[in-house]
Design a protein that fits this description.
16% helix
């Protein structure tokens, strides 16, 4: 009987040893790299709303939104958005509306980068903005264009094309630091 128990113990020990030696905790580097490149969450044809103090402050719809593991950012394509402020005396609450082909958004740092066919209308500026690359910094309320990218601004009877675009929501001004051309219609 004692011999049988020793044999069972040896058999169990041998089985565990074989099992442990055949398992590896080192994963293939390609598999780990692929996991970093694949999104953790994917949303298709989605609409999100952000609320603050029971008021809707933003709505975003996108054809595709991807969230990657260990990153505080999301990437989206086919994006349309609206931002809202508390309604004033005139009842108007829409602050901005727009669309873009691609969006990078990091809500923790309040950095939003827009790319490809950007169309933006700002009620605050009373103007339409068109570009291929814009960056919004929510902390300092700045909208900045790429130095080399031409931004078109349409307001009332004026159309301006320029490079080195920047706009401040705080001061309500926008400017170009590069070459500017345009046309203005007067009566």
């Amino acid at each position: 009987m004692q011999f049988l128990q020793k044999k069972k113990g040896f058999f169990l020990f041998a089985l565990i040893t074989i099992f442990i030696s055949s398992c590896s905790l080192k994963y293939d580097d390609d598999a780990v790299a692929a996991g970093k490149q694949n999104p953790e969450l994917i949303f298709k044809n989605t609409k999100f709303s952000r609320f603050e103090d029971n008021l809707c402050t933003a709505e975003v719809s996108a054809e595709l939104i991807e969230k990657y593991k260990n990153k505080n950012a999301v990437y989206a394509s086919g994006v349309e958005f609206s931002t809202f402020k508390e309604p004033g005396e005139d009842g108007e609450s829409v602050s901005n509306t727009g669309s873009c082909g691609l969006l990078f958004a990091d809500s923790n740092s309040e950095i939003y980068e827009l790319f490809n066919g950007i169309k933006l209308y700002s009620n605050d500026f009373g103007a339409h903005f068109y570009a291929n690359s814009l960056k919004w910094n929510g902390v300092n309320q700045q909208l900045i264009g790429d130095r080399r990218d031409t931004v078109r601004v349409e307001k009332d009877d004026m159309i301006i094309f320029g490079t080195g675009f920047s706009a401040s929501a705080i001061s309500g001004t926008y400017k170009f630091s590069g070459t500017v051309t345009g046309e203005m219609t007067t009566e």
